[in-house]
User: Fold this.
Amino acid sequence: MPELPEVEALREYLDEHLTGRVVERVLPLAVSVLKTYDPPLTALEGQTAGATARYGKFLALRIGELHLVTHLARAGWLRWQDAVPAQPPRPGKGPLALRVVLADGAGFDLTEAGTQKRLAVYVVHDPQEVPGIARLGPDPLDAAFDRDAFAALLTGERRQIKGVLRDQSVIAGIGNAYSDEILHRAKVSPFKLAASFDEEQTTRLYAAVEDTLREAVGRAHGVAAGRLKAEKKSGLRVHGRAGEPCPVCGDTVRSVSFADSSLEYCPTCQTGGKPLADRRLSRLLK
Assistant:
C-alpha cells in the first residue's frame, strides 16, 4: 500500500509533470472506482491542471475549479505516460481503473491489482468533501506536529500502539509498513498500550515517527513514479522481511499474521527477546 512517503513523492511528481497542462479526456474503466457523480468527470475536460496536494494518503489534483481526488488503497498505483496509446482501453480488462489524457498526448493511468477493488476517485469542489479526508488526524510532516502534540494523542489511548499509528483519524498517512519501521526504530513492541508510554518512551517514539517518515520522503524525492515501489521496499528494515536477520542486532525478523495483513518485528530489539504469539489478540508468550 502506498503510504505517506510514496504519496508525497507522487504529489511532487505530478506537480512537476501535470501543472499547467490541459485535460482532454477522463476515462473511467472500472465501475467501482468513481465514488461521486456530481460534478461529473466530464467537467474536468478542457480544464487546466494546477497544483497537486496531499492529505494523508489521498492525492488531490486541482483541475480548473475542481479537484480530482484519489486514494490508491492497498493495491492501487499511478502510472505516468509521456504518450498515451491512441487506442482507447477496454473497460474491465486488466488492472486499469481510470485514464487521464492530456491535450498534448501525455497522461496517466490509475491502476489496481488483485480482486479487492478499493481504489477510489472523487470529483469535488473542495477536498474536505471527501469523507476520508474530513476525518484525518494531523499530518506528521506538519510543523505543528511536535512532540507535545504527539504525546497528547497517546494520552488515555488504551489501544495497542501499532493500531494507533495506523489509525488515520489519529495520525494521517502511516500504514502497515511504516508503522512496523517506526516501532522497530523506537525499540517498542507493536502490542504495547499507547497510554502506557512514559516521557522518555514517548520522546523516542516521536523521534522514530519523524525520522522514519522524513528519511523515506528523502529517499523517494525525485524518483520516477514507476520506481517508487521498489525504492520503498529497499528502504524497509523489518517490514516484509520475516526470516531475514535484523540489520541492527542480527536476530531473525518475525511475523504475526492477521486476516488480511501481517506485521514484522525483531524480538531482540522490540520485545525483550520474546516472540509474539501469531494470533489476532496476541500477547507476549511467557
